[in-house]
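Check these lines:
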Amino acid sequence: MSDELLEAYASAILRSLEDGDLREALRTYVPGSEERVRKFLESRPDIVQLAREVKEIKEYSIAHMDELIDDAIRSLKSVNAASHYAADAREARELALGLVGKGKVVIMSKSMTAEELGIREALEEAGNEVWETDLGQLLVQLEGGKPMHSIAPAIHMTVAKVAKLLRERLNLDVSPSDTPQQMVAKVRQFLRSKFVSADVGISGANVLAAREGALLLVENEGNIRMVTNLPRLHIAFVGVEKLVPSILDAFKVVLVQAAFAGLYPPTYVSLIAGPSSTGDIGHRRVYGAHGPVEVHVVLVDNGRRAAAKDVALREQLRCIRCGYCQFVCPVWGQVANNWGGSTYGGPMGVNWTAITEGVERGAALAMLCLGCGRCDVACPVEIPISGILGDLKRRFASSL
């Protein structure tokens, strides 16, 4: 890792330690979130048992990743969805640009994979109007920053800062005295016009059932359903580590992810298997009834297949992105995702940086891990997160 990059990471961390708004936001939100998940899990041993099943599902899926990729490609074709493969972020951006073109209105649901790939920025540079529709992710877009948590991207923002962003960047009639409910109502009105005029909807996926070619997405806001249903074209960017064999396996992953994220039961779970269709006229199947005419699924590697062959990093591929390890981490609790690479942060995020940006970067960032092991205990699929960070530390030390 270059000295300049190390200095940039160090500067971001030091700035976050002096950021009063960040300190206030983390003190206000994090303890309650951790406690809420802990109490829920104590009351629901069935969810804890389901998490053990998900661990086994993910272990099988990683060991059979190439086979599941082939299965998914065949299944997506069978449900009239187009499949694509992106070896790295550059190929993913090129696919996005080729499918979207220029001068379009694009709406996006929150996707850490799309964030990792730089999809929004690439489309904007090509002359498209692009809007994040998850409220937290929209705030991050307006701020020009990065998500500070995998589930709650704007966790670092106080109510006063949110009001300022909405007023100055969207020209909304918002004041610091407005309640969160009032602010949400004004953003809802603003985004409605984007939803109904959008040419393209871009999403990620929580999981992809390879046997059926079905995407599953979990949410509470309701924006994902509109992003994936209203525009004529829907594009989903899915990391290959999110492949599991069947729909039943996929539902188990979604339920555990929601529970450990503190959002159980989830308000919405969407299953998408190809574009909308109808056979009600002449009993002939035609596509593009009320939802998309086209669905494209981009299977993304970007370091994942190599990580599957790495003794330490392969364990991180079990991650279901619930973000619970971030809530319990003392380092993340001070600096949020400022401890991390371009996209990911916190204990699991440093490991994901090693996978997607290179071991050299992840190894240097791992040196800030305290080795307390709280992340290991929190992880629903028993990833030895601190052990992977320890391995990265050893790699960093050996490179000096």
About this structure: The first strand starts at residue 82 and ends at 86.
